[in-house]
Design goal:
The complex is a heterodimer of chains A (196) and B (164). Helix content of chain A is 31%, strand content 17%. Chain A has 196 residues and is α+β, with helices and mostly antiparallel strands. In chain A, helix 5 links the parallel strand 4 and strand 5. In chain A, helix 4 packs parallel to helix 7. The two termini of chain A are 27 Å apart. In chain B, 48% of the residues lie in helices and 20% in strands. The termini of chain B are far apart. Classes of the chains: A alpha+beta (196), B alpha/beta (164).
Chain lengths: 196, 164
């Protein structure tokens, strides 16, 4: 009987965790303090630019991230061109003292020539506020802090050359030029965010 | 002498066949078609996993145990790997190590979004994913992320109880 109650409690806990943000949802946690790999504290409010902000939940070790990250600097350049802030967020709180530590994040960003902020989300507060569950997972907000695109980077993690649908790049260009974003929500396979 | 060689050959064939593991690659449609063809259980538990996914690997033995604990008329367990082609051997090796019985598959590469939605419209794509389907392959319950054996047992028992 005790086990049954514990299980029910676990089910309730699971069900009350934040739901993944829906399109048009307001940017949550804009003022949360996030430590960047350059040693400075920042926040989404500070990172966002005139046309919005792009958040990618990422990490150092997920094979899906590893495959997709050859496109991160292109995404960064396109964000810059369209006056949209860009940040990669590491919310793997359970691994923040091992493979996803700040030192490992700095090494990973250097080895992969990241030219954008890569921040640690302590206790995965931001991921929880977003309802984010996996890496990589993309959230693009407009100038009014409204979610306009969420989901996958594109339709082919394994090969940038074989991409047929460039969801995020298209969304960034559309947002920057004030056009409608054709595809607003997509899905991809990914690694779970390791909450504490 | 010839008699002994034949005996050795037979033994070798038997031992090889028990380790000769074939994991078909399937789309979601092919997966469901195969399950319909091969399964007559009341419920089918599909576990979507990957060799590189630590929570999947940790959860895996719990689900292997479930298959052993339930009668085949009540529950069938199907493992579906999302590993890429280059990891096919690791998948086979892992399944062997875990002494998996029953049918198991590997996802055909590509078309991930369609695959995710065919397994469950509610699934975000995070691994592991576990869904319990009735014999008509209607999704009755699902979980994203790792769960333990007691949790799964509780859920399966509840479904079987409701069914009477």
């Amino acid at each position: 009987m005790i086990i049954r109650f514990m299980l029910l409690f676990a089910v309730i806990i699971f069900n009350v965790q934040a739901r993944d943000l829906d399109i048009n949802a307001k940017l949550p946690g804009g003022d949360y303090v996030l430590q960047n790999i350059d040693g400075k504290n920042t926040s989404l409010d500070k990172i966002k630019k005139a046309n919005g902000v792009l958040v990618i939940f990422s990490c150092n070790t997920c094979p899906w991230v590893i495959r997709w990250q050859d496109r991160y600097n292109l995404i960064s350049a396109l964000s810059k061109k369209n006056d949209i802030g860009f940040v990669a967020v590491n919310s793997n709180a359970r691994l923040h003292d091992s493979v996803d530590s700040m030192d490992e994040m700095i090494y990973h960003a250097t080895a992969n020539e990241y030219d954008f902020p890569y921040v640690m989300d302590e206790d995965a507060k931001l991921a929880k506020a977003f309802g984010a569950m996996k890496t990589p997972h993309v959230y693009l907000f407009d100038a009014n802090d409204r979610l306009v695109y969420t989901g996958a980077i594109d339709d082919n993690a394994k090969s940038a050359k074989r991409v047929k649908k460039n969801y995020l790049m298209d969304a960034l260009s559309s947002l920057g030029s004030g056009k409608n974003i054709a595809t607003r929500k997509t899905k991809a396979l990914g690694c779970s965010i390791k909450f504490n | 002498m010839k008699k002994y060689i034949n005996i050795i050959l037979v033994i070798t064939q038997i031992s090889c066949s028990s380790y000769d593991f074939n994991v078909d690659t399937v789309t979601a449609d092919q997966l469901f078609k195969n399950i319909k063809k091969n399964t007559s259980s009341e419920y089918i538990l599909i576990n979507v996993w990957s060799t590189w996914c630590l929570p999947c690997v940790e959860e895996f033995p719990y689900i292997v145990n479930l298959e052993k604990q339930y009668d085949a008329k009540d529950l069938d367990v199907v493992f579906l790997s999302t590993d890429w082609d280059e990891n096919a051997l690791e998948v086979n090796q892992f399944l062997k190590e875990q002494n998996v019985i029953g049918q198991h598959y590997r996802k055909k590469e590509g078309d991930d979004e369609n695959f995710i939605n065919s397994i469950s419209q509610s699934w975000s794509g995070v691994l592991p994913f576990t869904g319990i389907y009735d014999k008509n392959l209607n999704l009755k319950a699902y979980w994203e992320g790792k769960r333990d054996e007691i949790f799964f047992k509780f859920k399966i028992d509840s479904l079987l109880l409701k069914k009477g």
